[in-house]
Design brief:
Elements (H helix, E strand, L loop, with lengths): L1 H12 L9 E6 L7 E3 L2 E3 L1 H13 L2 E6 L2 H10 L3 E7 L8 E4 L8 E5 L18 E4 L3 H8 L8 E4 L6 H5 L5 E4 L4 H8 L6 E6 L8 E6 L4 H17 L2 H8 L25
Parallel strand pairs: 1-4, 1-5, 8-9, 8-10
Antiparallel strand pairs: 2-3, 5-12, 6-12, 7-10, 7-11
């Protein structure tokens, strides 16, 4: 009830923007809780933020959920289109026009708590363990840059979180996640926060947060409208309330670990 009351008050505070006749297609993927499908609807933290930005801007935005590779391809081919939640990397910088940042969190590695001997002090230590991730995910580019080899240091899967079953069985040492995404990952494998613990924070120049990546030929007017609306929403929308709505597990803080690892838990969001 508290959430809905706050959202009602927020909606009444928004400027009323009439439709400008502009229509764009926004692609996204299954990446809970940022964006996902539920009962034939596309929902999620960043879905709500982006669609509110469209509404405030007076832009007609159609949502389409596709596998990541196909969504990326369509965004590059279709002028009036965009893709979220997209990592803004140096390699992608000139290929899109960018709106954001949207909501994101710090990237962390997690292990099964029973794996007592697994300790990581630097990215070089990652070469001694096995990791699972989705094929063509941003982290595959990061791993390649860190000279981690597919099939030796990490395995790739066709869909997000397919690696969770092997991780649960102890056949993969590490998974990648964040304080925001971890709950959905664990739920998929029937695990809880008490089964895992963070071991390392991954920092890399390619990890700059989640954005709405728009076709490089789209009208700059549309991009500027959406950016202004995103900025407006950040100043007025209680994003933490939206985050709370989508996280399936209660707050979990690993107090026994270094202060640095606390950002790997506890619903730490950035926007």
């Amino acid at each position: 009830m508290k959430y809905y009351l706050m959202m009602i008050l927020f909606y009444f505070s928004l400027p009323c923007a009439p439709s400008s006749g502009e229509k764009i297609t926004l692609y996204t993927e299954e990446f809970p809780p940022y964006n996902f499908s539920q009962q034939n609807e596309i929902k999620g933290i960043n879905t709500e933020v982006v669609m509110e930005a469209c509404r405030v801007s007076g832009i007609d935005c159609e949502l389409v959920l596709l596998p990541w590779a196909r969504a990326m391809k369509n965004t590059k081919l279709n002028k009036n289109s965009g893709l979220f939640s997209t990592s803004r990397t140096p390699a992608r910088e000139d290929k899109f026009k960018w709106v954001g940042p949207l909501v994101y969190s710090v990237t962390c590695f997690y292990k099964l708590k029973e794996n007592k001997d697994l300790i990581i002090h630097s990215t070089d230590d990652l070469k001694h363990f096995t990791i699972g991730l989705m094929r063509l995910d941003i982290y595959q580019l990061v791993f390649d840059d860190l000279q981690l080899k597919e099939g030796i240091h990490y395995l790739t899967f066709a869909e997000k979180h397919q690696e969770m079953e092997l991780f649960k069985k102890g056949k993969l040492d590490l998974i990648i996640g964040s304080s925001v995404t971890l709950g959905a990952q664990l739920k998929k494998a029937g695990l809880t926060f008490s089964d895992v613990e963070p071991v390392f924070v991954l920092e890399h120049r390619s990890l700059k947060g989640n954005y709405l990546a728009m076709n490089k030929n789209i009208d700059d007017v549309i991009v500027k409208k959406l950016q202004r609306s995103i900025d407006y929403l950040k100043q007025n929308l209680h994003v933490d309330t939206i985050v709370e709505q989508y996280l399936p597990y209660p707050n979990q803080v690993y107090k026994s670990h270094a202060k640095r690892l606390e950002q790997c838990s506890g619903k730490t969001t950035i926007y």
